[in-house]
Amino acid sequence: MPDAIPSLPGLLGPQDVRATAAAIARAQEPSGAIPWFPGGHVDPWDHVECAMALLVGGEVDAAERAYGWLFASQRPDGTWPIRTVAGVVEDAGADTNMCAYVAVGVWHHWLVRRDEAFVRRAWPVVRAALDLVTALQLPFGGIAWARNAYGGVADTALVAGSSSIHHALACGLALAELLDAPQPEWELAAGRLGHALRAHEDLFDPKPRYSMDWYYPVLGGAVREADAAARIAARWDDFVVDGLGIRCVDDHPWVTGAETCELVMSLDAIGQRDRALGQLDAMQHLRDPDGSYWTGYVFADDARWPEECSTWTAAAVVLAVDALAGTTPGSDIFRGATLPSGFTDLGLECGCAPADDLRAGARAD
């Protein structure tokens, strides 16, 4: 990573970023898998986030081994197990959001490394994952959140997970354009999904207590501009704890580092840079001297909980710093300037007129 990082509140210096990336690398298993913490379980979403942070922090070999494990462990149907411990599958089900996230990691790798051979090796993995995910789109546009080990599919979708899938589809379509391999089904799915997140949040399985449901439609790119600013403002006081970061759950006295850093990237994506810097600075109380990060802090008890330093919290910090400092070409991954946008909301089954029809009617008036 570059040695020059702007001196701004909350932004780590290059040595600190490298130390945090090194902390992630220390947890990596010989197979290349990255568990939540040494001896903990692996899930594909957090694994990809850690691989992205390793690239940003200069741990290139560890990042390549992480992607090697991911590509080798994908199942023939395009999925990965929800939970693996030391190479043993403990939950053979598939979470659609976890599976889709490979597309984000591969597009980020391209932005940072410009390695076309890597992209071509990864493309069949991305294609299989996103084909599976789009096949599980529900009639109203949300994506069924899981399929169990026996093939049963959930009949509900989650706001946070579907928002992350919206981002993954954009990254997948960017890869498709790079390789001249059009995927019109993905584009149609992204348009329907974006519409559902903007217009039919009530049809998703509600999780309003959780901060992720608050900011993820912004982070995933489905909600932007004035609507995004209004969404963030509406629940700011419910989740933000001055000087500490944000709550994971609105009625618990518990702030968490990863959620705070995801909010940082959401704020950055909509131009609220000062607020983003403030939240990144606020959560630094979770930093350990070795560069790792504690998962959370129960401020009512003045206690860190759980008593673990999680790799994915460290990864979120590294990606948030990169987003604000712009130290790598991948720093735009959540702002989305390198991604296709404005997916047409065709094929709707919710009874709404497509946006193009609405715009045409407005012009006629």
TrEMBL record:
Query: What SUPFAM superfamilies does this protein map onto?
Result: Six-hairpin glycosidases (SSF48208)
Q: State the protein's name.
A: Prenyltransferase
Which organism's genome codes for this protein?
A: Nocardioides jiangsuensis
